[in-house]
Amino acid sequence: MGAAWCRGSIICTPRETNPSHEDARLSATRIRLAAYDQEHLLDFVSMLNHHELSAFLTELNEIDLDVLETEMKKLFMKKKEEKVMPFPLDDIGDYRSASPEVKARWKSTTLKAIGRGEVAVVLVAGGQGSRLGFDKPKGMYDIGLPSGKALFQLQAEKIQKLRLLASRDSKTPADLPWYIMTSDATHEDTVAFFKKSPEAEKHRGGLPAEDIRCFRQGMMYCINKEGKKVMLAGTGKLARSPNGNGGIYAAMRDKGILKDMRDRGVKYLHVYCVDNALAKIADPYFLGYCIETKADAGNKVLQKHDPDERVGVMCVRNGMPAIYEYSEISDKNKYMREKNGGLTFGLASICIHYFTTDFLFRMCSDRDGKKLNGGIMPYHIARKKIPTIDAKGKVFKPKENNGIKLEMFIFDAFNYAKNMKCFIVDRFGEFSPVKNPPGIGKLAAPDVARADVNRYHLSLLSKAGLSLLKAVSEKLDIAESNFKPSLLAQTAVKSVKAGVPMLVYVHGEKINRDGVMESWCPDCRVASKILFEELKEREAKGKGYILITLPVARAGYKGNASHMYRTNPDMKIEGVPTLFLWTTKGPIAQRTLGEAGCQSPEKVKNFLDYSYAISARNVEIPAKLSYDGEGLESAVADSLKLADPLAQWCSPGVQ
């Protein structure tokens, strides 16, 4: 190996690749590709250096062209007529109508299984937040809760809460491992989030680092829109994309995840997708039902909103349990109804599944290993805009669909289940996907998910005995002569019980100025207009508050350093106007707005946003709150940190 000098350092140069050897490899590869009409993949090899060419030839020779051609032909073959039937009622568990005794039994079954180390959680998290305008893994996205916690951390805390509940039940530390399927695009960031970042311990929510294991899903070649040719992503690089959430089974097998589960003694798996902000991780009722009925596969479902809702539904296809995709369901079946008015095909799948490890071992070992991806799951066509190269070898992003991504679907595993069950739940508190960018009126957006989380968590607080259905708004004007510090303390207790913010506003009193009653203080006139308009707008949305106004007379205040509001140990105002957020412990000093802040619409708005959040955080929660089937105890943690806890109090979902 040669060496070159550069600024006093030795740089080792790689050994030159043997040109004659590469020429022979290139010639053999060209002949092989030509036999399958894929010779276009070599159109730009003259632009590659020896090392790039060597790596590219290796990549090309890893393609099983015979299998790829066979599978592509199958995908474009006309499908045989299929017999589709509704999913049988006898195989559906219904959380909504189950008795308290049955629910308690399901819960106990799962917690005991967790206590024995027989349950694991599997997260599908290969997607980036590109559609959200976020270039990191979607699990690292913050939907806007004041806690600032990402989806990953919220889910970690739910798993930790279940571990603690199961430990309490079994008297021994519970082991509940979390397996996270990533992609090439998300793997490194996900691992860093949980194990390498300065805040990794906080991100894990109390989970041991060794109980979180990340593994990559497979990649698949992209094909042109005619379904004939493999696409290029660069002059010496094939276009590839993640192979879909159904790639999880081959990845679990090939990355040793299934073996690790078996070695740990895991029998039951809860599988879900990262972008459901309301996902109930390892839901004890769902898992308990599946365990009791000895299901080898289970699917949590909702009732469709209406026939045109774009969601797959459970069915039986050609005698096997399956998902009837919204893109393939016929109009006849889409609108078909039962005698009770319900949709015949109305069990909407939300990608929350249950499997036994025995079932997955059997499914993975029974498939034909000669097929693509080991033949575990069939591929489906997804027409997409795929970055590729032009005639000059330059990369470009198309404006229209120009190719096909081959994807597997996680629910195709249902076809192989011998005892498939469905578990139906209410949509409220169970499902709120985060897929689209923020914006008013957008479905599946962070704004909607945040509101759904707010509504659900408020319902938990209400069930715990708090009166949250009626907004309280109260204004008290206290003259200087009537002021007593005890009045503020008493009112603070009242605000805590009502769950609304208590604001204390010190301002110049109103006087008759040219026939108009307004404050003697010019700054107060500006500040009052901003504050009262903001409060009026919030009150119209059902956001209550308690506002105490403390007007001061100019004569007794100006130049008086010993004025009681200046000397009061809790207030110590430096000028008027001043706005406090008051709690049972007095004002929150770092959030107090002085003269300049009170005249800034943005600062007043931010002050009130924080005030509503802190008012919910101060609510006294009864100790009886527990995992009651409507949510995890850990959900309450963020219930107390809502940005706008009163915004949804009048919503039908909370009644």
Plain-language structure description:
- The structure is a single chain.
- This protein is an alpha/beta fold and 655 residues long.
- It folds into two domains: 84-426, Spore Coat Polysaccharide Biosynthesis Protein SpsA, Chain A (Alpha-Beta Complex); 467-620, Glutaredoxin (3-Layer(aba) Sandwich).
- It has 20 helices and 29 strands.
- It has an eight-stranded mixed β-sheet with strand order 4-22-14-17-13-5-6-7, with helices on both faces. A five-stranded mixed β-sheet has the order 23-27-24-28-29.
- Strand 19 and strand 20 (395-396) form a beta hairpin.
- Helix 4 (100-115) crosses helix 5 (151-170) and helix 13 (446-463) packs across helix 20 (633-639).
- It is globular, with a radius of gyration of 31 Å.
- Residues 1-17, 368-373 and 617-655 have low confidence and may be disordered.
Q: How many beta strands in the DSSP annotation?
A: 29
Beginning-to-end CA distance, first to last residue:
77 Å
Q: Assign an overall shape.
A: globular
The CATH class of the largest domain is identified as Alpha Beta
Within CATH, the superfamily of the largest domain carries the name Spore Coat Polysaccharide Biosynthesis Protein SpsA, Chain A
Task: Please name the CATH topology of the largest domain.
Answer: Spore Coat Polysaccharide Biosynthesis Protein SpsA, Chain A
Mean pLDDT: 84
Q: Topology of this protein?
A:
Blueprint: E1 3-6, E2 9-12, H1 19-34, H2 50-61, H3 65-76, E3 84-86, E4 92-94, H4 100-115, E5 119-124, H5 151-170, E6 178-182, H6 187-196, H7 200-203, E7 212-216, E8 219-221, E9 223-224, E10 232-234, E11 237-238, E12 240-242, H8 248-254, H9 257-264, E13 268-273, H10 284-292, E14 297-303, E15 313-317, E16 320-324, H11 331-335, E17 347-356, H12 357-366, E18 380-384, E19 388-389, E20 395-396, E21 403-407, E22 420-424, H13 446-463, E23 473-477, H14 485-498, E24 502-508, E25 510-513, E26 516-519, H15 522-540, E27 545-552, H16 554-557, H17 564-567, E28 578-583, E29 586-587, H18 595-598, H19 601-617, H20 633-639
Parallel strand pairs: 4-22, 5-6, 5-13, 6-7, 14-22, 23-27, 24-27
Antiparallel strand pairs: 1-2, 3-15, 8-12, 9-21, 10-11, 13-17, 14-17, 15-16, 18-21, 19-20, 24-28, 25-26, 28-29
GO biological process, one term: UDP-N-acetylglucosamine biosynthetic process
Keywords: Nucleotidyltransferase, Transferase
Catalytic activity: N-acetyl-alpha-D-glucosamine 1-phosphate + UTP + H(+) = UDP-N-acetyl-alpha-D-glucosamine + diphosphate
